[in-house]
Every structure is written in structure tokens, then in C-alpha cells.
Amino acid sequence: MAFPPGFLDELRARIPLGSLVGRQVRLIRRGRELAGLCPFHHEKTPSFYVVEDKGFFHCFGCGAHGDAVGYLMRAENLDFIEAIERLASEAGLAVPQQTPQERERAQRQKTQLEALAAAANFYEARLWAPAGARARDYLAARGLDEETIRRFRLGWASDDRQALRRALSSVTTACSIRRAAAQTSLSSRHCRRRWQTDSTWQI
Ligand code: ZN
Question: Which of 79, 106, 177, 190 is the most exposed place for a label (fewest CB within 10 A)?
Fold first, then answer.
């Protein structure tokens, strides 16, 4: 959904991310960041960080990443509009209403984002699977440590060009997601060939 300029900024400014996350996670200040145990995966030492001045969170353990809206979507299992409505109500802001055209565009965009997320998850999982060992070695040889690889959600695509299509059809029955994946030419746009392996970059 397209909101008027400044609406989301105003929302984020009124509800600082640290206080939102702090309701569920005990956060400890570490320099400019706040750290705590990740609410999205089980861990014993904190790898979940809130960067308050930039308004985003990131977990080095499971890769969870986003802003206040994204946090609420994950933590409360809300969709984008529900999360916006929740934040707006707490902030005392009225949510701008969508026109039917905006609603349709938002739905299309959401489907394509889901397709991108599914593809990124797939390639990321492949990199960390046993079959991705050579790709991991390659990235290590290029000087990328595990933290960086996880932070930027690098992935690995094998020579099997149908693997993504098969994986998407097995994990979801939503044809629209597969269509969106095809439309965005994931295999060509999101992969760059390197030596004998492909690594994928989220762009
Ligand atoms: Zn995590």
C-alpha cells in the first residue's frame, strides 16, 4: 500500500523500535545498539540486535531482519496492513485509506515479495546444506566470514535450473507465487556466475 510521504516515518518516530521490541525481549545496550535473545529462534547467547537510530532489527543467528512493521508482522503474526494499523492506533495516527487500485497493486506487490522471500530462503538453505560446501569454501576464499554471509543472506544456486521451481511447488501450492517468481526472472537476475558455483545476492 502506498502511504502519503512521511506517514511511515512518522509512525516509526512515534514508536521507537527499542521500546516496541523491549516489551517482549530483554534488551541490553551495546554501544549504539541494543542486544537480546532472538524472539524468532531459540538461542542462549544474544545474536539479535536493534539499531535504534536506523530503526531496524537484525538477528545474526536466523537472519530475521526488518523495521517496526516487520517486527510486529513476525512477532504477532500480522499482515502488513494489520501491523500498520496496530502501530498507528498506538501512535494515535489515522491510517490513510486505500483506493481499489492501490489495494490491487499492493496485493500484486505482496505476492512478488513473497516469491522473492521464498526464493531467497531456498537459495540460502542450499548454501548451508551439505551440497553447498564448495560454494561456502568459495565465499570463504573470497574473504567472507559466516557472519557476513548470514547477514547479507547469501545463497547458492546449483546448475539445476529447475530446482527452485520444484522447491516452490513443494513448499506452497500458491500458483501465483510461482508465477511471480517466473516474472521476476529470479534465476537470471538474482544469480551471478562465479567459477564453478553460483552464489545468489539479494538485491
Ligand atoms: Zn534469530
Answer: 79
